[in-house]
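Quick sanity check, Subunit of tubulin prefoldin:
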Amino acid sequence: MSLSMSLGESSKSRLYAQHLTTDLLPSLEATRQAIQQTEHDISEYRDLAERLRGLEQTGHAPQTTLTELGGGCYVDAQIPDTSRVTLDIGLELHLEMGAGEAIEYAEKRAGVLEKRISALKVREENIIWQIEQFRGAIAEADAGPKTAQAGVVERAA
């Protein structure tokens, strides 16, 4: 009986450990990376909104800026009218809009991303809880045969 319990507990331990290493830990890492990326995106949208507010304060006067051509090469560029901007909204879609509309878009996008952060953090907490449960189950499965063997030895004595 001790041998069959040992095999069963060992099999459970391996199964739990496999699930932990192939599913839960990678899922936790992916969730944490998604949180970091989303926090970065929120920062970018907030920065965009601030820069657009700065453009509005200048009265949309012409601006001179450095523009990268590629390969670390920059040129001075003249922007004659800053009242309209073009936003890359993803999926290779670009929208031209007024600076005020762009500020509103950036703020709304940051708000949506903040909600995503909340959902990701709930997911992270859930995965951490599952990891703790599986680690406990592994420890219990590993301890099971030893406890059973100790009981058999005590009875024999």
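Posting the structure with no commentary besides this: Helices lie at 2-57, 99-156.
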